[in-house]
Specification:
The protein is of the alpha+beta class. It is built from eight helices and seven strands.
Length: 203
């Protein structure tokens, strides 16, 4: 048993310890709430491999999962409590800031795709408001898909340039010979409207 009163230094230590424990338990409860919300949102193809992080209402990191740690190249312990806009200063003035602040202000979910120069990657991002006033962010890299889409657009532009070449006659047929498309040069050689021949068998 203690036979002397606490000194002022001891009382200060106890008060600081109690405050620290209170914050720790608060963070744990908030994390459990977020994880429960995550479980309710997971399962769709867009989120199966998604990374997750969450800031509070003051934009301070409260949760960073392992996938997000890998993408950022930073451990959760190095991010918790830090300001999002200080850590990712190069996101200021980008689509990311616009969408994040809109979600925080309106408390409505947001979904978008954007290129992030800081990581040299394209991302698909889903933002959801949390009950505690913060946000949860699901995101995954889509650079490979974007590169494929860009190549497809280049191919389509090349095809259109060839198709509309005034020096050649071009028509597109279905496997059964049905005429689906014909360019203007070819139509100059027949005395019918384009609409009159589209859908007809070529042979």
């Amino acid at each position: 048993s203690r036979d002397r009163p606490f000194s002022s230094a001891e009382r200060l230590f106890v008060e600081l310890l109690a405050a620290w424990l209170g914050r720790a338990f608060g963070r744990r409860a908030a994390r459990e709430d977020r994880e429960a919300a995550v479980e309710g949102r997971e399962g769709t193809p867009e989120r199966i491999d998604a990374a997750l992080f969450a800031p509070d209402a003051d934009w301070r990191f409260t949760m960073v999962d392992e996938r997000a740690e890998e993408i950022y190249g930073m451990a959760e312990s190095d991010l918790l409590g830090r300001d999002l806009w200080t850590v990712f200063e190069d996101a200021l003035g980008t689509r990311f800031e616009e969408e994040y602040r809109t979600a925080m202000r309106t408390r409505e979910s947001r979904t978008f795709e954007a290129y992030y120069d800081g990581l040299d990657e394209w991302f698909h991002v889903e933002v959801y408001p949390d009950p505690d006033g913060g946000l949860s962010f699901y995101f995954h890299e889509i650079s490979e898909r974007k590169a494929h889409e860009q190549e497809l657009r280049r191919s389509e532009r090349h095809f259109e340039a060839v198709f509309e070449d005034p020096q050649i006659l071009v028509g597109l047929l279905d496997p059964d010979g049905t005429l689906r498309r014909v360019n203007g040069t070819a139509m100059e050689f027949v005395d019918v409207d384009r609409e009159a021949v589209l859908g007809d068998p070529f042979w």
